Amino acid sequence: MTDAVQNLVAALAAGQVEVVDLTQPLSEETPILRLPEPFANTPRFRLRELSHYDERGPAWYWNALEGGEHTGTHFDAPIHWVTGQDQDDVSQVPPGRLVGPAVVIDHADRAAADPDHLLRVEDVEAFEADHGPLPEGGWLLYRTGWDARAQDEAAFLNADDTGPHTPGIDVACARWLADERPILGIGVETVGTDAGAAHSFDPPFPCHSFLLGAGKYGLTQLANVDRLPPTGALLIAAPLKIVGGSGSPTRVLALVPR
Ligand code: 23J
Ligand code: MN
């Protein structure tokens, strides 16, 4: 018990625990959400050079960074949505809730066949029958294979004249995960936790509405979820401690037994 951290250090050194980076690279090319008129949109991530070993700073290179809170691999805090407006901003999320177990439900085959594919309650119940209940104080990661598109914004957003077509979670399942399961939140590979078509769901954007309203969190634009087992990984999410922030670009790491 007192040696638990030392045991982990030894397991890491021995290669018995692997660190998997679930974070997408953050650059000007990182795909960003596009909302229709009349809604405000987020700016792209951008570095603005301050000096590069030059007259502006002879011995140092540094940049200012610009961009939205909800850019690339990022964390949605409860206050992001009107349903969670009285709850935590991203700086107020307790640190103990940034470390927890993760389980993975893999619907990559179904999302490949139908980009509007939606996860349902019965799918999660089928997972629980095989792997046990969703973890208390942990994450449900929803693998859809969408990370394969993450370096190509058009393919990643997959929009046509009827709007974006990306996989997500249906209304009943979003409500049930928020109200009936003891998870911290959900993590996805797509640009947001909601399906591309969720603007026209009732209510709109049900993952945001129900999960953030229940004080839970979202993690988006994850990478390498295919390298995690269905159960047994430990996830570390490290959003910036932005005072008053609704979310933040986030480094997400998983510890995986090997
Ligand atoms: C604002 C409005 C709609 C959506 C989102 C933000 C996100 O996906 C987000 O990054 O939180 S769907
Ligand atoms: Mn977000």
CATH domain topology: Glucose Oxidase, domain 1
Average pLDDT reading:
98
* Ligands present: oxo(2-sulfanylphenyl)acetic acid, manganese (II) ion
Instruction: Tell me how many strands there are.
Output: 14
Structural write-up:
With 258 residues, this protein is α/β, with parallel strands linked by helices. Helix content is 19%, strand content 29%. A seven-stranded mixed β-barrel has the order 4-12-11-7-5-13-14. A hairpin with a 7-residue loop joins strand 13 and strand 14 (247-257). The longest helix is centred in the middle third of the chain and has 11 residues, at 121-131. It starts with a helix and ends with a strand. The model has no long low-confidence stretch (mean pLDDT 98). The chain binds oxo(2-sulfanylphenyl)acetic acid and manganese (II) ion. Residues 33, 35, 70, 76, 80, 192, 194, 205, 220 line the site of oxo(2-sulfanylphenyl)acetic acid. Oxo(2-sulfanylphenyl)acetic acid (23J) binds next to loops.
Q: What would a concise description of this structure say?
A:
The protein has six helices and 14 strands. The chain has about 260 residues and is α/β, with parallel strands linked by helices.
Secondary structure topology:
Elements: H1 4-13, E1 17-21, E2 46-54, E3 57-66, E4 74-76, E5 99-106, H2 108-113, E6 118-119, H3 121-131, E7 139-143, H4 153-157, E8 159-160, E9 163-164, E10 168-169, H5 171-180, E11 185-188, H6 206-213, E12 217-220, E13 233-239, E14 247-257
Parallel strand pairs: 5-7, 6-10, 7-11, 11-12
Antiparallel strand pairs: 1-14, 2-3, 4-12, 4-14, 5-13, 8-9, 13-14
Bound molecules: oxo(2-sulfanylphenyl)acetic acid and manganese (II) ion (MN).
